[in-house]
Amino acid sequence: MSARQDDDVALKLLHTADWHLGRRFPQFSDDAALELSRARMSVIDAILGSASHNEVDAVLCAGDLFDLPQPDEQWWRPLADKLGRYARAEHPVFLLPGNHDPLTPGSVYHPDHPFRHALTEHVHVVDHDDFSFRLSPQAMLHARPCRSRAEGLDLAMALPQREADDTDIRVGMVHGSTFDMPDFQTNFPIAADAAVKRGFDYLAIGDTHAYRVYDPPEQPTVYPGAPEPTTFGERDAGHVALVFFGRRRRRPLIRPERVSRFTWEERIIEDMPALRRLRDEPLQRTVLRLVLRMRAGPAEHDEIDEILRGLQGTASNHGQAAVLNVDRCELMLDATDLGDVLDGLPPVLADTAARLRAQAEAGGEDAEVAQRALYHLYRLVRSGGG
């Protein structure tokens, strides 16, 4: 079903969640962390662009839009501007407080916060427990906010149940995790059959960062995932969910659409050929973490440094990878061929080299320090500094 088959489509929604605006990335360099933080804001343009292209009737933002309940103005002000340029009466936007940005006194969603005053009238914050909004003559939205970081209440089961004579398309929106989803969290648990029990045709949820559809025979429960990944290991992140309800068929068609700028990938490199192959890969949109789990001789260490400089970039050249993070903890120096290079050193240096080599080969806590010292000694001798 295409987005423009209006004769067949009764309701079109874009469902997104887990933007985590303002998230910090301390494991990266300052420049890389800034790039990743900016990507979290720029992906909002892709999300709203998709909503506009598909002419959706509403945008549902199912929680954790901010990483903290009181984000800096540099995060909420641009978001208010972007939403204000998009939202209209015919395509409103709904913002749901999640467990990272719950509705609490002083939070960004509190009615007294300047963020609320910066929002236009067609951007709606779910700021009370019995929130409802008529999306169309045939469709109703019901939502309930998170009011704390963790709570035992099943927010989906707290939504109103369908009345016997209610023929609306009923859409629910909450933040939490269903019991039987892999790695589900217990901070806001949601019953797997909540949509069925409460009579919803679609349950829009945020929390899980991967795109997932819990798809029982009746009503689907959907996590769109984080539109930009937040860490390594988040499989199937980077999407929004487009939802189409047919006029003659109540069960919706759900289509993931990729909006992310970056993909995140971690690789374990165990030999030089695997590292060399990276030079031929298109990594311009990849946040790449390399775990160097290998032994390399001194000359190979030089080649490793050269390859990593090409991946990361320098002050004068862009890197091949969008962002590079390297773990060298398991990169071991193969000192077996250092003997010839270090022959002829003054006795004091030769004795030091021998002790360092023995310490490196013995392993233990100081082995890595000994390996680095040996390598620097090797480079010094090779450059003529010895």
Topology readout:
Layout: E1 9-16, H1 30-53, E2 58-61, H2 73-86, E3 93-95, H3 114-118, E4 123-125, E5 131-136, E6 139-143, E7 169-175, E8 177-178, E9 189-190, H4 194-198, E10 202-206, E11 212-214, E12 221-223, E13 239-246, E14 253-258, E15 263-269, H5 272-277, E16 286-292, E17 294-296, H6 298-312, E18 323-327, E19 331-333, H7 339-342, H8 347-362, H9 367-382
Parallel strand pairs: 1-2, 2-3, 3-4, 6-7, 7-10, 8-9, 10-12, 15-16, 16-18, 17-19
Antiparallel strand pairs: 1-13, 5-6, 11-12, 13-14
Provide structural commentary.
The protein is of the alpha/beta class and 386 residues long. Helix content is 27%, strand content 23%. It has helices spanning 30-53, 73-86, 114-118, 194-198, 272-277, 298-312, 339-342, 347-362, 367-382, and strands at residues 9-16, 58-61, 93-95, 123-125, 131-136, 139-143, 169-175, 177-178, 189-190, 202-206, 212-214, 221-223, 239-246, 253-258, 263-269, 286-292, 294-296, 323-327, 331-333. The strands form five sheets. Strands 4-3-2-1-13-14 form a six-stranded mixed sheet, covered by helices on one side. Strands 5-6-7-10-12-11 form a six-stranded mixed sheet, with no helix packed on it. Strand 5 (131-136) and strand 6 (139-143) form a beta hairpin. It is elongated, with a radius of gyration of 27 Å. The termini are far apart.
Task: From the structure above, extract its key features.
alpha/beta; six-stranded mixed beta sheet; 23% strand; elongated
